[in-house]
Amino acid sequence: MPPKRSRSDDAPQTKRPRLVREPQAAERKSTVLVNGRAGPRASAKRSKLAINDIPTLSEQKLTVFNFGSGTICELGHGPDVTEIKRPRINPFLPADDSCGIVSVAAGGSHVVAIDYQGHLWSWGQNDSAVLGRNTVETEEEKAEDHDLNGRESTPKRVEGIPDNVVFVAVAATDNLSAAISEDGRVWAWGTFIDDGDKCFRAGGPDIQRQPLPVPGIRGAVAMAGGKDHLLILDNKGDVHAWGIGLSGQLGHQVSTRLRTKTFGPLKVVGLKNIRAVAAGEYHSFAIDHNDRLYAWGLNNFGQCCIPDMAGEGKTITKPTLVSFFEDKPVKMVAGGNHHSLVLLKSGEVYAVGETNFHQLGLPKSSFPKSTVYEGDGTTASYVPDPTKLTIGADGDDEDVTLPKFKYIAAGSDHSLALSEEDGSAWTWGFGEVYQLGHGKPAGEDSPEDEELPRRIRNTATTGVTMVYAGAGGQFSVLAGLPKEN
């Protein structure tokens, strides 16, 4: 495990972030759904028309790359691989009819994926049953000379799901996995953890060990996972939040007791017409169909993009419009531990929040006047105002104009973005366990943090256009398609 870094915030230490993208146009059904009751005795109240389509199963088989630290099986390259310095193709997930992964989601220390037939796959640490399958090794397996649990470190199919269920979207928190089936139902397994106390749902087990349909949610179209909370977007444009919410990340009042009769997905009041959701460790986002951004949750480092409500111990308890982006159409958001990235439809990326580990990708010369410094007055702690990324690094060139981007992702303290032009991957931030994918600099004994977005260049990724990026605390995942000639 890498050495822990000290922090001055009051939130618990964690290992991850999260983001879930909106359904892409090519993955959507063309039909419009109506959630109402037919017949002469139907309610006089008009049913709310669907504004979001349940995604369909993609047919594009992706090549999956992993890199970073795999000491707790999160790389998925088998029981003898605990570290990968640069992106490496996963040998257990071939992009053909024997597997053919089409969708991926990274949790804190595990990954879930969907293949072209709608089956679920998983790998990584399984302490909270997030893999949805039995990973207890036999005595013979334990006796083999390996570094890791072979069942956790090797991608395998999730168990206990009826053969006729087809999944179209996945999400992951630190301790929970979730998937949307083609009929718009949410299935989940694992648990939520609050100060060591575990609960899956009211009246249920502490830990759900196999996928189970979640009651009360119909027409789900997208999800986003934080450390221990999950956002669910439905086809009516409403958002439902579930999990631990003591930092305001659920957008509604919560009991200080974990086991309560209302512990389950609840509608977030104050949001409508929503098309996408995203989550950081303790904060949440929603984007409406007018491309406006809403945020709520922990804002101690300004990670909610609302600077006048930022500061030590500050939380935003209900969805609040982010005024900074009112005239800047938002495409996508990614949340880390205490930082956030915002991708505009123009392809520009803005960063906000904690900057101790360069996770914002900003040179010191770009820090706004509002930047908050630590006690010495010289070390920047956080940037409360969203600030545009403009320059990066590529090879020996340390002053490259950044390309337009199409996709963003955030690990706990590192960030990733995919170029719109050529699908290349750019990474920055905390990189001491190779989660940035650049290997180690010549003459150095270990990898370094990256202050600026740096383009990944290695043999394995040559000829691949990346379409997905994800990350946990110590690892990253890329997935892509062969470049067109």
Poorly predicted runs are 1-46
Number of contiguous helices: 2
CATH architecture: 7 Propeller
Query: What portion of residues belong to β-strands?
Result: 35-45%
CATH topology, which one? Answer: Methylamine Dehydrogenase, Chain H
> Briefly, what CATH class?
Mainly Beta
Identify the CATH homologous superfamily.
Regulator of chromosome condensation 1/beta-lactamase-inhibitor protein II
Shape: globular
Structural class: mainly beta
Describe the structure.
With 485 residues, the protein is mainly beta. The protein has one domain (18-33, 48-482): Regulator of chromosome condensation 1/beta-lactamase-inhibitor protein II (Methylamine Dehydrogenase, Chain H), CATH 2.130.10. 2% of the residues lie in helices and 38% in strands. It has helices at residues 139-143, 150-153, and strands at 18-19, 63-69, 83-89, 101-106, 110-115, 120-124, 156-157, 167-172, 176-181, 186-190, 192-194, 197-199, 208-213, 220-225, 229-234, 239-243, 266-267, 274-279, 283-288, 293-298, 315-321, 330-335, 339-344, 349-354, 372-373, 380-388, 391-394, 397-401, 405-410, 414-419, 425-429, 450-455, 464-471, 475-482. The strands form nine sheets. A five-stranded antiparallel beta sheet has the order 1-18-19-20-21, with no helix packed on it. It has a five-stranded antiparallel beta sheet with strand order 22-23-24-26-25, with no helix packed on it. It is globular, with a radius of gyration of 21 Å. The model is unreliable at 1-46 (pLDDT under 50). Residues 64-478 form the RCC1-like domain. Keywords: Guanine-nucleotide releasing factor, Repeat. InterPro entries: Ran_GTPase-activating, RCC1-like_dom, RCC1/BLIP-II, Reg_chr_condens.
